[in-house]
Amino acid sequence: NKDTNYVPGHDVMVHLLEWKWTDIAEECESFLGLKGYGGIQVSPIQENIIIPTRPWWERYQPVSYRWLTRSGNERQFREMVEKCNQAGVRIYVDIIINHMTADHSFPVIGTGNSIADPPSRDYSAVPYNRSDFHKSCSIVDYNDPNQVRNCELVGLHDLDQSNEHVKQTIIKFMNDVIDAGVAGFRIDAAKHMWPSDLNFIYSRLKNLSTNHGFQSGKRPYIYQEVIDMGGEGISKMEYNDLGVVTEFRYGFEISRGMRGINSLKWFKNFGEMWGMVPSNDALVFIDNHDNQRSNSDGGSVLTYKEPKMYKMAIAFMLAHPYGIPRIISSFAFHNKDQGPPSDIHENLVSPLSIKTGSCVEGWICEHRWRQISNMVHFRKVVNGTVVSEWWDNGNNQIAFSRGNTGFIAFNSETFDLNQKLHTKLSSGVYCEIISGNKINGNCTGKTVFVDENGYADVKILSDAEDGTIAIHVDVSR
Ligand SMILES: O=C(/C=C/c1ccc(O)c(O)c1)N[C@@H](Cc1ccc(O)cc1)C(=O)NCCCOc1c(-c2ccc(O)c(O)c2)oc2cc(O)cc(O)c2c1=O
Ligand SMILES: [Ca+2]
What we know:
By secondary structure, the protein is α/β, with parallel strands linked by helices. 21% of the residues lie in helices and 19% in strands. It binds ligand ZXU and calcium ion.
């Protein structure tokens, strides 16, 4: 079963990239729980190598399974999970079980002061030794499934998940994390591990902890990173019966749509018909921690750096029923390796200002943007309804309803959208939720009038700050 384990009335996952555990706990209580976010993907909790320039990807080179990183220690992690569960926000841990570190020219020290000797495959803090790793062949042919699984990805020493000691070590790590109260895991680099080995591991995971508010018998929500844009020897379809898979086609296609490269009118049948996995098997996103900075998937997915189109892409994702959506909330970067903001002691800087409670310079906090957090509410209100009343102008103006509970329209033409469009909403004056909120019965942004036949006056100027207008039944005045 593919249950996210979200608390009823909560939806949408946010990847709080490189946030500290104490700050995440604070954000659960002061923002995410109240806004109805369903869950948080946290950065890896296992001890990672310290690379002198502190690139963001150092956290994807584990040194041990100790819960010691720049995000915090075990006590802080446990406290954060407790506070977020109490706020109705679930925690999903990003775990790296395919590999340990690569070889480096400097002595290898971890964020928990563990040492390791990668050339001799000695990771004493686990412990792992040479017998726990595959031979050090390199992945050169991505069309050879054996190489992709049994050789080293960019020099990262590749664990042998068919080895009993490796399996038991991973299972113990994941079960300890489950006992801390988390709701599931992101499996990093799943494509580089055999589905049968992963299945063995998943089947030996405990049920979620009843001591942390989960009903008995709940299974951890597992979503697997499988970068598959088609054309490689390994298919995402090898993994989606084990658990959910990251659907990379999704963000790529929506970015092309909002950029005007592919006409929005084609998105009328967006979903499995586009060669994507079944909706319940798809963890969907516009950008992720890797391709937002490196455009590694060949295309150029939208990011916070192109805010108008990015917000339209996120709004489409949150308004559309396909997949399980995740947004990223990241730090500003100027080069693709750059790590998170840190102080002179290389401690992570808190994204939250103690004084104002808002996010500080250097942290984008996409999850706080009104145009994004209000669409989280939209998604919750329309939950369970289908897309209907699809309209398009034959190119880059589209609109659709979600049952009789919500309506959204997009204009990515160079000219205005100004139409009476049919919705399934009952008549009335609705607060438009991209441009504002409804506070004490008043609309702080635009209003949209729906007449007694369900026709809405839809106007989106081509030079407007946002190319989207959205209304739903919760904010009718
Ligand atoms: O750009 C990066 C890091 C990227 C990255 C990190 C974590 C991820 O979850 C991810 O998806 C990508 N890393 C830089 C620097 C680097 C890091 C380690 C290393 O041994 C060599 C170089 C880089 O240029 N990497 C080469 C291209 C990206 O190749 C990587 C992939 C990857 C990319 C595309 C694929 O289709 C694929 O199947 C795997 O996954 C990783 C997973 C990891 O757990 C750790 C990694 O270092 C990587 C990783 O290097
Ligand atoms: Ca492997």
